[in-house]
Amino acid sequence: MTPQEAAQAEADARIVEGYHVLLSENLRLAHVAMMEFAHANNDDYWPKGRDVIRFARFYGVSAPALGGLVGLLPYRLGRRTVWVDAARVPYLGRRVGLDTFPRAALVSYGIFCAAADTLERESATLH
């Protein structure tokens, strides 16, 4: 591993640790419950915008923050909320403009991206 890759790995690890520090217990519980629900009920095993809204209401947490944890970023278009699936189509977030999304969504999305990078890096490591 190069020094630059090691530094990135350390930075990602600190961000992932923020999951327990920055996010409330209810938000973490909503995240786990929503992922279990999606795995059991959605064809692609991944939450949809309507799932985010449903679980955010039930657990009394911010829908943008919960959506960011699964790569779904909301923004307002008139009176509608549109969800950008930045997990599957990352360039859409940049196309819409990151300043369009709520801060809570971007904080959670940063944790999501760091966790995904960590998993990808660990799966590529030979043991």
Q: Can you walk me through this structure?
A:
The structure is a single chain. The chain has 127 residues and is mostly helical. 65% of the residues lie in helices and 9% in strands. A hairpin with a 2-residue loop joins strand 1 and strand 2.
Give the topology.
Blueprint: H1 3-22, H2 25-41, H3 49-59, H4 63-68, E1 72-77, E2 80-85, H5 90-96, H6 103-123
Number of strands: 2
Strand content: 5-15%
Order of helices and strands: HHHHEEHH
Q: What assembly state would you assign to the polypeptide chains in this entry? A: single chain
| Structure annotation, total helices | 6
Q: Given the C-alpha coordinates, what overall shape results?
A: globular
Integer-rounded radius of gyration? 15 Å
Ends apart, CA distance between termini: 14 Å
* Low-confidence sequence ranges: none
How are the strands of the largest sheet arranged?
1-2
**Major sheet, described briefly?**
2 strands, antiparallel
Total of domains: 1
Mean pLDDT: 87
